[in-house]
Amino acid sequence: MKKDIHPKEYRQVIFDDATSGKKFLIGSTVKTAKTAKLDGKEYPVFNVEISSASHPFYTGQSKTIDTAGRVEKFKTRAASTKVKPKSANGGSASGVK
Fold first, then answer.
1. d(CA 33, CA 11)
2. CA distances from residue 13 to 2, 39, 45, 76 in whole angstroms, order as listed
C-alpha cells in the first residue's frame, strides 16, 4: 500500500449486517461509536441493514426486509387507492365514449 494516500481516519472497521448476522472486517473512514472484539482484537463497529450476505441479488432468496415500516405504509397506501377498470373498447366502464 502506498504511503500518505489514505486519510488519517482510515482503519479496519467491523461492518455488522443486522439481517443476516454476518460481520465483515473492512478498511474504512466511517465514524463509529461502538467497538467489538473480532479474532482477539478490538475494532470499531458499524451496523448495516443489508449487505452482500443478505441482499436478494447475491443470495438468490427473495424476502421482505422491513426495518422502518415502509412495507406497511406502502400496503396501506395501495389499499386506499382504487383503480377504475377500463372496458375493452377504450371508453369508460359504462361503455360510453
1. 14
2. 20, 13, 6, 39
Cell representation of residue 54: 443478505
With a threshold of 0.90, does the pTM exceed it?
Answer: no
Question: Containing domain of residue 21, as a range?
Answer: 1-63
| 12-29 pLDDT per residue, tens | 988 888 777 788 888 888
> For residues 44 and 32, what is the distance between their CA atoms, to the nearest angstrom?
6
**pLDDT tens for each residue of 32-85:** 888 888 889 999 988 887 766 665 555 666 666 666 677 777 888 888 887 666
Q: Is residue 27 part of a domain?
A: yes
Indicate the SS3 state at residue 94: coil
- b/e per residue 55-85 (b: at least 16 CB within 10 A): eeeeeeeeeeeeeeeeeeeeeeeeeeeeeee
Copy the grid coordinates of residue 59.
443470495
